[in-house]
């Protein structure tokens, strides 16, 4: 969060959490998927479910999944734009337990068949939190380039990652670590100040296996190719 | 981003011998890796957008629900004629309602800190600039003050109605505007924090029970109350009236109070005004209209 999350952003009304936040959640999910969305199953929870239709939350989520930003005047017409882009979607009630009051679960299929199961929370003032990706419980804002590593808990793991970043003179903004049990399944979430360079990404994939790493980039340069 | 206590901002201000607003600006420079000029210009951009939203109020617009629109125009006309309240307050009230209506009508607004509370800060600051002939730079500085207060509340309590009720939205906006106004009136750091504390105290426990789940009833008019609350708080501070509870303790009580507000009164529209016979009727009509 920075001060321009407090004063600002400039957005299309009416609700920062239910309209702008919902756009951002859709957008973050699209970035995590890494390609344009072909089909979206959208499951609403809590206040999103109870009051979403009055705030245009549905329009906002679809707008975000199409890559729109919260100040985009096309938001109220996002369903029409989805149709044009060939994106299908459906809405239902979420079955989440102990989730944030403004949560949505998204089950996405990308144009190449890639799948993503995702839970996002709108935590107020248009700020969001990504709380799960597939079976993983995570916790990051989507405001910074981020990578997530699934691994087995063992001594020296953290230094193997931070060592690699240090060698490449790369700064970490925040780092979160979770584990189920000692020596069990563990998750590391690293938020960075800059985009993760290919050289580091490749090295991380080498070290820990590409299937164990998720990269979240702020760039969505797949848009142009994807939507032609 | 750093600040979870108003006292932390004040301590840095004293240690570095810089103003409250400069502490926030420097923190932003560090956080976003920008220059002082870039940070200041971005805040100016926010203020100019507020002024643009204010100036482009369209009295003919009615929100899709039919619940909001044209009251700002009535207040504008009323503020020019015979009435009890002075020029400053009557303009503040008119501006706050106008901005709230613009938001409900899906116009572009600046969240401060949320969209539902977007009318409070511009109502106070634009009116101050116009009526006092203040320099725009001073208003921009006051927005850094407001942002600092908002940061503290967001970190230590909440700025989300779904989490903390309306005290977290209009209450936060009022605290931010109160601090900003006290700064503009030449108040010290302690006085800025005092105004923020007084404004919060007046809104502790305020629930979020919007009719049909829309940011319209009671939100639009509540912007006016939040803005007036900010003016009253700055007025009290100006007279030397102090909060007996220190500002950071007030923010903490806001957090605890928010947690105790039941979910049915935190933006779920399951109680309060939303479930009055008329509120229920409006919600049912909305549903059948499929808006």
Characterization of this structure:
Chain A is α+β, with helices and mostly antiparallel strands and 228 residues long. Chain A has 2 domains: 3-134, 2-Layer Sandwich (60s Ribosomal Protein L30, Chain: A); 146-216, Alpha-Beta Plaits, CATH 3.30.70.260. In chain A, 33% of the residues lie in helices and 33% in strands. In chain A, the strands form 2 sheets. In chain A, strands 3-2-4-5-6-7 form a 6-stranded mixed beta sheet. In chain A, strands 9-10-8-11 form a 4-stranded antiparallel beta sheet. In chain A, helix 2 runs parallel beside helix 4 and helix 4 runs parallel beside helix 5 (78-85). Chain A is globular. Chain B is mostly helical. Chain B is 64% helix and 1% strand. Chain B contains 13 helices and 1 strand; from the N terminus they run H-H-H-H-H-E-H-H-H-H-H-H-H-H. Chain B is globular, with a radius of gyration of 19 Å. Chains A and B meet through helix 1, strand 1, helix 2, helix 3 and strand 5 of A and helix 2, helix 3, helix 5, strand 1 and helix 7 of B. Strand 1 (10-12) of chain A pairs antiparallel with strand 1 (108-110) of chain B, so a sheet runs across the interface.
Topology diagram in text:
The complex is a heterodimer of chains A (228) and B (291).
Chain A: H1 3-6, E1 10-12, H2 16-33, E2 37-45, H3 46-55, H4 57-65, H5 78-85, E3 88-93, E4 102-110, E5 115-124, E6 127-133, E7 136-140, E8 146-152, H6 157-167, E9 172-179, E10 185-192, H7 198-208, E11 213-216, H8 222-226
Parallel strand pairs in A: 2-3
Antiparallel strand pairs in A: 2-4, 4-5, 5-6, 6-7, 8-10, 8-11, 9-10
Chain B: H1 6-16, H2 20-32, H3 36-55, H4 71-80, H5 87-104, E1 108-110, H6 120-132, H7 136-156, H8 161-164, H9 170-184, H10 189-201, H11 219-238, H12 247-260, H13 277-289
Helix pairs in contact in B: 1-2, 2-3, 2-7, 3-7, 4-5, 5-6, 5-11, 6-7, 6-9, 6-11, 7-9, 9-10, 9-11, 10-11, 10-12
